[in-house]
Amino acid sequence: MTSRQCAHTGIVAILPGLLCAVLGGGQSAWAQGAPATGSPGQAVVSPALYSAMEYRMIGPYRGGRSTAVTGVPSEPSVFYMGTTGGGVWRTEDFGESWQNLTDGQIAVASIGAVAVPLSDPNVIYVGTGSACIRGNVSAGRGVYKSVDRGRTWSFIGLKEAGQIGRVRVHPQDANLVYVAALGHAFGPNPERGLFRSRDGGKAWDKILFISDSTGVVD
To answer: Can you spell out the DSSP letters for 88-115?
Structure first.
């Protein structure tokens, strides 16, 4: 795959300015002329400001469907996308170009969850195996972590978690991580449920388990 490709997966955008307003906290500049609703002092975005905008494809060409997307609030132009057949991709320019981060480093191409801690945007957690189940679903192989913005990756466990639907990180502690594991798609297995790590993935505790046939997904 080339490192800079545009336009053809299920990731779409409107205009970078709107993303800046929503993710960058600049709502007040967008609220001029908007009716006053909500809490006192709360900025409101007027629908008139974006009513003429249209969605468009922003890529990349390769990767298939995507069920895992996250942004970085401290870096409004940066977004990560996990695809069902092409690994993890990043854009640093609001989707104008995309770079694959995981080719040759992660054992499977199906990605179910991507999370970047608010307290440290250099860290990325990836749960493999899309949890959007269908007949030709690709199985996951656990959780991976990067501490250098996706240049290198390490496997950090839960290899038999099957399809991982969500990864969440504590906003003030990049080492406190929660993983929702759906489990194997086509059979029972015990490594499913809700898992927690307090040390960045070195060890995992299963904090919610119903049965070997019932997983957790968000």
So the answer is: EEEESSTTSSBEE--TTTSS-S-EEEEE
Instruction: Name the residue with tokens 């002329």.
Output: 33
Please tell me what DSSP assigns to residue 162.
B
CA distance 199 to 217: 22
Asked whether the predicted pLDDT for residue 24 surpasses 60, the reply is: no
Q: What is the mean pLDDT of residues 117-137?
A: 93
- The CA distance from 153 to 137, in Å, is 23
DSSP states of 26-91 as a string? -HHHH-TT----SSTT-----GGGTTT---EE---SSS--EEEEEEETTEEEEEEEEESSS-EEEE
* The pLDDT value given to residue 21: 40
Task: Round to the nearest angstrom and report the end-to-end CA distance of the chain.
Answer: 31
Report pLDDT for 27.
40
Q: What is the mean pLDDT of residues 111-115?
A: 97
